[in-house]
Write a structure and sequence with these properties.
Order of helices and strands: EEEHEEEHEEHEEEEEEE
Strand content: 15-25%
Largest sheet: 6 strands, antiparallel
Structural class: alpha+beta
Strand order of the largest sheet: 1-6-2-3-4-5
Number of domains: 3
Shape: flat
């Protein structure tokens, strides 16, 4: 079960360091700020400061700082001694920030916060979040229970013989005992299909991917016949390194693409263009993205076949 992100009730998000004496919500507990101290710049902090134009350190909003806090109520951190001993004072170090600031959830009152009557955690407590997740899950199950065999598991509409679809044999991961999951491959349903596929593979890693492909850092070189190969080497946006098991577009997704006639010179001197070692011509070439993946269909046991 995935517990939803925690949004403490009655707090206000602050992007600047909290003032001493204020109460903040963090990790399902309430903490009181005792002191805020600027920290000296580390090597990484100094790089950020230089990139920011070397602003005046006392006025720089991105300067690293330390917040000393005292536990007031709520969940006890893992590092704290067993109850009933009090939680020792702690500190939270914030490194230098270039763009995004660290957000603090601050209570407007210095002595009041909404807490759970059962566990004492600031609301919503972890038990409340789990209850919400269970409720949402039951609502999903009710929707899935209305799906008929042969209908898309995403949109619920029937899949006709003229529509492209993908099947995931085996137990239904959303509705135990329900029909095998089947999805339209159209854009509106493919996102749900891909997310289902990742869970489907996690259940049995021997299953092959149908719609999802792992990432490869190499350069995908596309040939005139639509085949491809993956190459390592320096590129326009930095070095590219192929995965050991990459067989081009048949096995992986790539962030960098090149037409074969550009050749290795594409890396640093695209004007050289020595041509493709296979003799592919520019004329009629499909281009850097002109490849097509074979359609995969899972066999009865769940393994994909070409």
């Amino acid at each position: 079960m995935t517990v939803p992100r925690w949004y403490p009730i009655r707090t206000q998000s602050r992007w600047s360091p909290p003032e001493p004496g204020r109460l903040i919500a963090h990790d399902h507990a309430v903490w009181q700020v005792e002191k805020v101290t600027d920290l000296p710049l580390s090597a990484a902090d100094r790089e950020i400061w230089l990139d920011a134009g070397m602003p005046d350190l006392p006025a720089w909003k991105g300067r690293p700082y330390r917040v000393d806090v005292q536990h007031i109520a709520g969940a006890r951190p893992d590092w704290a001694p067993a109850q009933p001993a009090p939680v020792p004072a702690a500190h939270m170090d914030v490194p230098a920030q270039k763009w995004q600031r660290i957000g603090w959830e601050v209570y407007p009152s210095s002595g009041r916060w909404p807490s759970c009557s059962c566990c004492g955690e600031p609301m919503p407590c972890r038990a409340e979040l789990e209850d919400r997740e269970v409720t949402a899950r039951l609502a999903e199950v009710e929707v899935f229970a209305t799906r008929l065999p042969g209908c898309c598991w995403s949109c619920g509409e029937p899949i006709s013989s003229r529509q492209r679809a993908v099947d995931y044999p085996g137990d239904n991961l959303d509705l135990p005992g329900g029909p095998e999951a089947r999805f339209h491959t159209r854009e509106t349903c493919s996102g749900d299909a891909k997310r289902y596929e990742l869970r489907w593979i996690a259940v049995d890693p021997r299953r092959e991917r149908i719609l999802t492909y792992p990432k490869c850092g190499g350069i995908l070189v596309v040939h005139g016949d639509g085949s491809s190969e993956c190459r390592s080497g320096p590129g326009l946006a930095g070095d590219h390194e192929s995965e050991p098991d990459c067989r081009g577009h048949l096995t992986h997704d790539h962030g960098a693409h090149a037409a074969c006639y550009v050749g290795d010179a594409y890396l640093a001197r695209p004007e050289d263009m020595p041509g493709c070692p296979r003799g592919c011509s520019r004329q009629g070439h499909p281009g850097a993205t002109g490849y097509r993946r074979p359609e995969r269909r899972p066999a009865a046991g769940g393994a994909a076949t070409l």
